[in-house]
Amino acid sequence: MGWLFYSTPACIRDEIARICTWKNDDGRGYPVLISKQGSTWYAAVRSEPAGGCRKDGLDGTGSFKTDATGGYTFGAVFLTRRSGSEWGYKDMDETMGPNESDAPAKLLGLLSPTTSEYALDWRERCRRNAAREARPLKEGDVIRFEEPLRFTDGTEHQTFRVTLELLPGAKRRRMAFISTETGGRYRISAIKSRNWTRI
C-alpha cells in the first residue's frame, strides 16, 4: 500500500488505534499495544476471525499460529509524515519485512508465533535493536566503536571515555565523549543505536 494523506488528526496515537480497529462479517481486530519511535509507530494488533479456529491451527494466510479461539496477534508498522497541513501514513504488517525495526521488546512479547520468514527476521532485528538501546552508559565508561567515527573537524576517532558535563545555564548534565587517542571532546548523536562495545 502507498501513502495516504488527509487532514492532520487531533491525536496521532488515537488515529493509529482507529486504523488498527475493525469489525465486519469476517471478524474483528483491535490494537493491544501501540508504541512510537521517532515518526514511526508500532502496534501489536489482535485479529479475531469470525470463523473461529482452523484445523491446522494457523490463520487464513498460514503465517500465524492461532489460539483456541482462532485469534492471533501480529505486528504492524506505520510510517508517518506531514505534508503541508496534511498528515499521512503508510502501513505494513510484519510479514512484509519492514525496514523499520525499532519495536520495543514489550510489544514483541505480545505477538503470536509465526511461520513467516520475513516476520521472524523483522522480530530478530527488533530484538537486537532493543537490546542495543537498553545498554546503559555511565560516566567513566570507555567504549569502542566497530568503525572509526568521522567528525565535522575532519578527524576520525574510535575509542572514547564517557563524561557528563554541565553547560552554563543548564539544569541537567549532558553526555559527552572524550577521545582516548587525542583528549578531544565530542558529541555523538544516537549513541544507543550505534555499534559499540564497552572496554
SS strand fraction: 35-45%
What is the overall pLDDT average? 93
Structural class: mainly beta
Give the overall silhouette: elongated
Major β-sheet annotation: 6 strands, antiparallel
Strand order of the largest sheet: 1-6-5-4-3-2
**Roughly how many Å apart are the termini?**
45 Å
Work out the number of β strands: 11
User: What sequence of helices (H) and strands (E) makes up the elements?
Assistant: EHEEEEEHHEEEEE
Radius of gyration over alpha carbons? Answer: 22 Å
Which regions are unreliable across 5 or more consecutive residues at pLDDT < 50? none
Number of helices: 3
The helix content is: 10-25%
Task: Tell me what you see in this structure.
There is one protein chain. The chain is 15% helix and 39% strand. With 199 residues, it is mainly beta. A six-stranded antiparallel beta sheet has the order 1-6-5-4-3-2. A five-stranded antiparallel beta sheet has the order 10-9-8-7-11, with no helix packed on it. It is elongated and about 65 Å long. The N and C termini lie far apart (45 Å). The mean pLDDT is 93.
